[in-house]
Amino acid sequence: MAARVGLLPHAILVSSRALPTPRARVPYPLPPVPSYLRHASSSASRSCRASPRFVAVRAMASGNPYAAELAAAKKAVTLAAKLCQTVQQDIMHSGVQAKADKSPVTVADYGSQILVGFSLKMDVSSGPFSLVAEEDSDELRKDGAEEILEDITDLVNETIFDDGSYNISFTKEGILSAIDDGKSEGGPSGRHWVLDPIDGTKGFLRGDQYAIALALLDEGKVVLGVLACPNLPLSSINNINGNSSGDKVGALFSATIGCGAQVESLDGSPPQKISVCSIDNPVNASFFESYESAHSMHDLTGSIAEKLGVQAPPVRIDSQAKYGALARGDGAIYLRFPHKGYREKIWDHAAGSIVVTEAGGIVTDAAGNDLDFSKGRFLDLDTGIIATNKELMPSLLKAVQEAIKETNQAASLL
Ligand SMILES: Nc1ncnc2c1ncn2[C@@H]1O[C@H](COP(=O)(O)OS(=O)(=O)O)[C@@H](OP(=O)(O)O)[C@H]1O
Ligand SMILES: [Mg+2]
């Protein structure tokens, strides 16, 4: 694809070529279903929509009641990852000072959300569609946003065209309404998709780790999660600060409830089952935490590690790639302690947490409670989030509670 980062004052993505028009493309939003189905070119969409009974039979045969949703989720995040990779490469090659200008990441954020929502709607047949996602279209509907809206439209349409799975072209109005598909409030009943279109936006801008994180809630429980991590080494992080050792890069983690967790390459290698590490002595453990100190209190995590006797320095990587790396045993512990007042969003943990639990790990808040994804767009939890294997969890919880108590006592003396 030939999109590039423009060097205009507003420095947004500019398509360097007009959209190709060799095939008749169906405009989006779609006309009513019967006419749309005559035009769609997606074989996946045809097979998933053709017969709900066929989907159910296929799911039961695979032993995974969410097999159809899993296939659709993987396809959706893989498509979005293509768009994100294009934009990140453009940022890296453009010389644009990413920190000074956030508009490329804005384009990628919206574009990723549109592609995931659209792809799910095309390929998942059952029930009403509900998506809880990070972005809405309010900013794009304001005066002055016309150019960025055009850039998003071009980028989304180019990605769909290059991918070849769907014979659809978005109008600008279609782009705005597709973004607003993500406005659902979630909750304890029914099914809700939960999406972070680019988790780890700061990592994305730095050229480091980020993830497209998608989960499915069913009756308030996370039943499925996929994490596309385009910059994560496929087999493991062997270097303590997250660099690869010449390994293939681009990992897709997935998990469905009761069926375990897997990793495969983003370009489609066979899935490999993954498990958390079996370390039972914290002295041999390493721990993951946020790269950004504004997102997690590094002094508190340092004190927890000291209490546990952890020898290795922290492994700091952006986004839910940390959950994926933990799930396949690259490290033993994940610690996340946001500063006071921060409210965790469900899309920052839903996909990652099921990948870890289905790999045999445990994810709780700082008091040892399970995370509750049924309360709407936010998690209502105690202080922080911790994850590790079953062997280390009791000593980790003890160290966490001691360290928090000491921090609170020190604060009360000030
Ligand atoms: N102040 C503050 N405190 C805690 N957390 C915050 C804060 N601000 C943002 N966020 C959320 O952190 C998400 C990024 O995930 P991580 O913190 O794991 O990665 S990172 O190292 O910071 O990149 C990040 O996700 P994205 O916004 O999708 O990038 C945010 O949801
Ligand atoms: Mg996020």
**What fold name goes in the CATH topology slot of the largest domain?**
Fructose-1,6-Bisphosphatase, Chain A, domain 1
The CATH superfamily of the largest domain is Fructose-1,6-Bisphosphatase, subunit A, domain 1
Instruction: Please describe the biggest sheet, giving its number of strands, its sense, and whether it closes into a barrel.
Output: 7 strands, mixed
Number of helices: 12
**CATH architectural category of the largest domain:** 2-Layer Sandwich
> Shape from CA axes?
globular
Strand content: 15-25%
End-to-end separation: 56 Å
Order of adjacent strands in the largest pleated sheet = 4-6-7-8-9-10-11
> How big is the Rg?
21 Å
Structural domain count: 2
* Helicity, as a percent range: 25-40%
Chemical compounds bound to the protein: 3'-phosphate-adenosine-5'-phosphate sulfate, magnesium ion
State the low-pLDDT regions, or none: 1-23, 31-56
Summary tags:
single chain; 414 residues; alpha/beta; Fructose-1,6-Bisphosphatase, Chain A, domain 1; D-Maltodextrin-Binding Protein, domain 2; seven-stranded mixed sheet; five-stranded mixed sheet; 12 helices; binds 3'-phosphate-adenosine-5'-phosphate sulfate; binds magnesium ion
What does this entry look like structurally?
By secondary structure, the chain is an alpha/beta fold. The chain has two domains: 272 residues, Fructose-1,6-Bisphosphatase, subunit A, domain 1 (Fructose-1,6-Bisphosphatase, Chain A, domain 1, 2-Layer Sandwich); 132 residues, 3-Layer(aba) Sandwich (D-Maltodextrin-Binding Protein, domain 2). 38% of the residues lie in helices and 19% in strands. It has twelve helices and 16 strands. The strands form four sheets. It has a seven-stranded mixed β-sheet with strand order 4-6-7-8-9-10-11, with helices on both faces. The protein is globular and about 60 Å long. The N terminus is likely disordered. The site of 3'-phosphate-adenosine-5'-phosphate sulfate has 20 residues, from strand 6 and helix 8. It catalyses: adenosine 2',5'-bisphosphate + H2O = AMP + phosphate; adenosine 3',5'-bisphosphate + H2O = AMP + phosphate; 3'-phosphoadenylyl sulfate + H2O = adenosine 5'-phosphosulfate + phosphate. Keywords: Hydrolase, Magnesium, Metal-binding. Pfam families: Inositol_P. Belongs to the inositol monophosphatase superfamily. One of its GO terms (molecular function) is 3'(2'),5'-bisphosphate nucleotidase activity.
